[in-house]
Write a structure and sequence with these properties.
The chain has 548 residues and is mainly alpha-helical. It has three domains: 2-185 and 233-426, Growth Hormone, Chain: A (Up-down Bundle); 203-232, no CATH class; 474-548, Arc Repressor Mutant, subunit A (Orthogonal Bundle). Helices cover 68% and strands 0% of the residues. Helix 10 runs parallel beside helix 15. The radius of gyration is 25 Å and the shape is globular.
Length: 548
């Protein structure tokens, strides 16, 4: 537990948690009475302007996913400031003034577009930061939403309106500070993540390629280096068809899951029976806390941090929540609200991490990966809210509706689960580990080969690779011999020796845990024991052992 706390303290920077303020805005604006004191329902049922906002955010994600699919979003920073102004101003005017319907619709559209832009920019910056740091920052960011769940349900009037309107501004401040980190080269993925033993070779080749020298012609015209010369907007060697199929399948699953969550949200009121009786929203609070804890547990102890793996745990909760919807009373309402809160919170975190990893792999640009995935999530919420609203009205008028809707949504979700991609679908599209290609077979002929310690094609390519007259590149068997000797001297176990081999090749912990199918916590424990037994205190000190 102390190791976990120390890792969180070392990894988390408050400025990297700004995405949480966008999530908090969604919760406060759509699920509390902070903006509309007379709220009679939730989400788009509360006010007609929020239907416009829900439609606008869906359109924003899909439009910018296509428009910015080949754009470096760091060059588009003014759009983030525009989005913040739209989001904050639209929220304030909606809550503070009694506006005509058409003006309220425009404010809803503005807030929807603004929230979509901020989410896209946060996805972009997370794809640039260190993987280990992002895997802590994203679930920690949900702490902002948790804090708001304890505060905003009980704030109404102008203080509530001002509080909700300030959330996008706080997110923009954090985004600006994170941009400064990226510009200064702090907390970003380093080129040496691939293999520092050959870092000097790579730097020389990158410089030669930029100048168009003989080295560039020798090793391939127009070659791209994975994480070496510059950040890739896309990876032309990766099979785009497989990658697109993976994105479509995962988006369909997210759509179905959030349609179920949207139905549950729309069929419930702003205040459930438990909250009316005891004065606080216990279901949402407990569900959100448990969801964050489950996300942290999944990240640290699961070998696969992706949506398909997570759904094996979350799918039963969604089914239970849907089954509880048709029943009335305190217990069924509490079960439906709590289970959906758990599913919403943990899916929100893991889905965003999965989309960021897809962007980090270089298969798609961040705008495209995040835009398509988040667009399908918001479309699912919109469709679910409409279906829930219709079923609630049908129940009132004819006595039917909730049962039928619940059954249909369960069937749709079950079919979507059958279409969910498996781990086998992730190989060969840049998702075998966060931040690179999966093996040498995925590289172009002109790329610098990088050994994974297990791919025959990679091994052959490494032995065939030569750099004239510099003596920097050692033979793979020499490195293996050094690993075996150092491991024996330090008394490492067989698994620790295996991990040491990856570390000696400059592999990151996310790479190692994917290659060996181990959890984040298990790999971290092995690395800690290796450092202790070899009496080193940093990655550089460990690499120095192999430079002697």
């Amino acid at each position: 537990m102390s190791d976990f706390v120390s890792k969180v303290e070392d990894s988390v920077r408050p400025r990297h948690l700004g995405l949480g303020f966008v999530w908090a805005w969604i919760y406060c604006a759509f699920s509390t009475s902070a903006l509309f004191a007379g709220r009679a329902g939730s989400s788009i049922n509360a006010d007609s302007s929020w239907f416009a906002s829900a439609v606008a955010v869906v359109g924003c994600f899909f439009v910018f996913a296509l428009a910015w699919r080949r754009v470096d979003m760091l060059r588009m920073r003014p759009a983030a400031f525009v989005g913040t102004v739209l989001m904050a101003a639209g929220t304030f005017f909606l809550g503070a003034f009694g506006l005509p319907a058409w003006v309220g619709t425009l404010c809803g559209v503005a807030s929807g577009i603004g929230s979509g832009l901020l989410v896209l920019f946060w996805g972009d910056v997370y794809s640039r930061l260190e993987t280990e740091r992002v895997e802590i920052a994203v679930p920690a960011a949900s702490g902002a939403m948790l804090a708001c769940s304890f505060i905003f349900p009980y704030i109404q009037g102008l203080p509530g309106v001002c509080g909700v309107s300030s959330l996008p501004i706080l997110s923009m401040v954090c985004l600006y500070l994170t941009w400064n980190d990226i510009d200064a080269g702090r907390f970003v993925e380093r080129p040496s993540e691939g293999d520092p033993l050959r870092a000097e070779v790579r730097v020389g080749l990158c410089m030669s390629a930029a100048r168009g020298s003989d080295a560039s012609r020798r090793y391939g015209h127009g070659m791209r280096f994975s994480g070496m010369c510059a950040r890739r907007d896309e990876n032309p060697q990766a099979p785009q068809g497989k990658a697109l199929a993976f994105l479509v399948r995962i988006s369909v699953v997210l759509f179905a899951a959030y349609m179920a969550i949207g139905v549950a949200s729309a069929t419930g009121g702003a205040t459930d029976a438990f909250q009316a009786a005891y004065g606080f929203d216990a279901a949402t609070m407990l569900g959100s806390v448990y969801g964050v804890c489950l996300a942290f547990w999944f990240i640290f102890f699961s070998p696969r941090v992706n949506v398909p793996a997570l759904l094996r745990w979350v799918a039963p909760l969604i089914i239970i929540g849907l089954a509880a919807i048709p029943f009335s009373g305190m217990a069924p309402e509490f079960v439906a609200s709590a289970t959906m809160s758990v599913a919403d919170t943990v899916l929100q975190i893991i889905a965003f991490l999965s989309l960021v990893n897809l962007a980090r792999a270089g298969v798609f640009s961040p705008a495209f990966a995040i835009g398509v995935g988040q667009g399908m999530i918001q479309l699912g919420v919109l469709v679910g809210n409409l279906a829930g609203k219709w079923s609630a009205l049908s129940t009132t008028s004819s006595g039917y509706g909730l049962w039928e809707t619940s059954l249909v949504v369960i069937c749709v979700f079950s079919v979507a689960m059958a279409l969910a991609p498996s781990d086998r679908n992730m190989g060969g599209i840049g998702l075998r580990y966060a931040g690179g290609l999966d093996d040498a077979d995925s590289m172009g002929a002109g790329e610098l080969p990088v050994s994974q310690g297990g791919s025959a094609a990679s091994e052959r390519a490494l032995h065939a690779f030569e750099v004239e007259g510099n003596g920097l590149l050692t033979q793979e068997e020499n490195l293996d011999g050094m690993v075996a000797r150092i491991a024996a001297e330090g008394g490492l176990s067989a698994r620790e020796t295996e991990v040491l081999g990856y570390l000696a090749r400059g592999r990151s912990q996310p790479y190692i845990r994917d290659a060996l199918v181990l959890s984040k916590n298990t790999v971290a424990s092995h690395v800690k024991h290796i450092y202790q037994k070899l009496n080193v205190h940093s990655r550089q000190e460990l690499l120095d052992l192999f430079a002697n």
